[in-house]
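ping. complex inputs:
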Amino acid sequence: MIHRQRNATEGRDHARETDDTPVPDPRSGHRPPAPDGDGPAGVRAEDRLAHPGPGRSLRRLLQPQSVGLLVVLLALLLLVVVPEHVWGESARTPAPSVLNQGPSADHWLGTDGLGRDVLERTFVAGRLSVSLSVLALGLGVLSGVVLGAVTAATGRRVAAVLSGTIGVLVAFPSLMMALFLAVIFGAGARGSTLAIGFALAPYFARVTEKASRTALASDYVAAARSLGVSGPLLYVRHVLPSISAPVLTSASVLSGTTLLAFASLSFLGLGVRDPAIDWGSMLKNGVGQLYTNPATALAPGIAIVLVAMAFNAVGESFTHEHRTRPAGKRGRSTRPIAADEPPRAAPPGPHLVHVDRLTVEAGDLRGEHAPVVDFSLCLHAGERVGLVGESGSGKSLSVASLIKLEPAGTRVRATVHEFEGTDLRRFRADRALRKHLAGRISLISQDPMSALNPVISIGSQMVEETVVHGHRSRREARTRAVEVLDAVGIRGTARRMQSRPHEFSGGMRQRVVIGMGLMDHPALIVADEPTTALDSTVQLQVLDLLKRWTNDAHAALILVSHDLGVVSNLCTRVLVMYGGRVVEVLKVEDLRRAQHPYTRALVETVPDLDAPRERRLSSVPGRPPEPDQRPHGCVFAPRCARVQADCTDRMPPLEQSGPTRVACFHPVRDLPHEGAAHHG
Amino acid sequence: MDDLTFHGVDITYGPAGVPPTVKSVSMTARAGQTLGLVGESGSGKSSLARAAVGLVGISRGRITLGDRVVADASARRGRPRPSRAIQMVFQDSVGALNPRRTAGQTILEGIAASGHVPRADFRPELERILDLVHLHRRHADRLPRELSGGQRQRVALARAIAARPEVIVADEVTSALDVSVQSAILNLLRELQEQSSLTLLFISHNLAAVRYVSDHIAVMRDGQVVDQGASATLLANSRVPYTRELVKAVLTIPPLTTT
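pong. complex structure:
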């Protein structure tokens, strides 16, 4: 029910700006307010705000793919306009002296049955082929959008009839529809254009109807309605704009089909007819001479293929544009990443997990960057550690890399990376190690539904996993599954084993996932936001379950959460992450005397049931930096209320300071609630 | 300023005969105060919110704002006309903003709906409202996808404020946000409510957040209000077991121990 924001996944081009405090920005395109007496300023204000400004669109036009698009469009336009003027006459005039000739210097592609130059005719034919296809496509889009929008807007009964009709029409192959309609509208250029246009309409109607319904059901239309916006204005403002993207996509997909459908109709004699020529009618005439001069049929055929490709390319670039507009500031300067250090010999210790200076590097469109830097953690058996931070702080990626589940495209380096004394850096190559680890470490994710196969019964899934890992036989596994489900508090285990995931409630599903993770007696449980999607009472039960189980089985737990309350409830130690780095490590009971300004502020942002209501919650202004735009020096410096000159020189190392280990040059040492946390 | 009152409201989805999702709810959001509505998923709190702004029809009872009727089950069938006096802010700030309209355009729609501002004053009014929700003026030219979650929620709030409503219904407005951003939005809600003496219906599953924002609290479970009272006393000593269970489930950071 709760969808957490994943800031890191959204491309943005202004990581420096703050969330709360308006800061004047020289880069901003903000215009000063209109001076008094500037006529109807309100209307203009709205208009001006409507357009992002000429600079942006000009820059977009100059991008390479836009240039390519312009070239293709220009070529198509020239094909429609120029050949008709240059060769129009001669392409249509029969020349009895040169009937059916092969290619020669005078006629590069030879001549047809009436002695007309094939190359000239191919070019001239492009005019009708291209323009009529575009016209038919336009007609299809227009009639389809109107039909679809009407269907979405009308009452339930009428809509059902219209929608059903559209469905039936979509089921017909469009070429068959076009043939049928061509008979009705009559042969010839106009008839076939109408036929193809209306044959395409159902597709666009279906797409429009669906997109309109989505928009009509959205919260922003609900908000507009409660503001009193209704009728045509509601459609023009909020519904129609949202159908442009899907309609454009379908148009691009269907553009090639349209060209082909047109050629087919003409080929069958239902489309363009002499003296007018298009590629379909040329093909029709050319087939007869396929053996004397293959060019008469090949030339229009090749032209159809080329232009169909051009159509698709245009459509593709339009839809691509729609999907990926502003891609953020790309190609930011590559952060130099420290060269590999020789691995130090780690003393074999009692640690279950021992990771030192784990760094995750990733390369994407924005260039090389390191989303996680110098992550270190020592974990004893049975210990419960929490990892907290805002979205995008790198906490999930750190633990995923820790248990060798780093996403594709990232590289993990660490000076020490051990689990139960085994060096995990040779994990990729060592198959036996992987199988062994699969039972020793279990992962519980935020969304239990994504961890479960929806079509297989719970029992089979639990059994299958452990059997595949080779830890036990099928029968043993079944016994163990019943045992585990009992332990996580699922009643009627024998029956429940047969149930599929959707038959469980959210809390029950998460219990099942936890149960699955416990099948193999793991030594380490990694729980990534295990209770974020659950109700608070259910959350408490799941946390109790995790606590009880880790105690009983003496398993260690790494809990990733943005919720300090959850971490305090379950863990003994907390690692606070910010901007890909661990900025503070402390015991849960020391949270309120945390020394890092970020931790301190984070603690004071959480509302509780004891503090006097009059006191305002503190907030951390601004937002965390994107991985590729982290500042030089302390990562928190841009948002820190205590920032001083030396903070921007280098990243402070994690050092012991009183009860906590903190990465800050100026840690907060005074008592809580009188500190430097920003109250806003 | 008038009270927003629910008189024995039922809400039923689907065909007749289906048990109602919300069952005879009666409660009042006092004028100029905040009523917190807390409950778990499926308790019917969002249905009530949508009924208050006319997005969902009610099957029994009435919702009134002072002596004006907002929704009435005994009236003619069909969706009620939404009243401008009650505005809603949604949980999902992505879905609540038209992705193709800038923040400024979105807020201007609210200003235009208020009917109080002559067109010539739209721009200054827009700037005033941006200031109210602590957004910079340059944010007005941004599309929703160019804003952060917290900023988007501010824009949604600004649109509601701009219409100069008497009541704002805030449905889980912070649950999709990071904790640090959540506190900023909670502060903003309190600030706006105090400045413009709005009536606020604040809906959340987060009891601590509800307590922080609200003067009165109603607890919902399975479509019914099981407990209500002043927030100061309700959470401390309620006799309703479910309320106590909810209070117990609030996880907080341990207080400072003197060592």
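The first strand of chain A starts at residue 353 and ends at 364.
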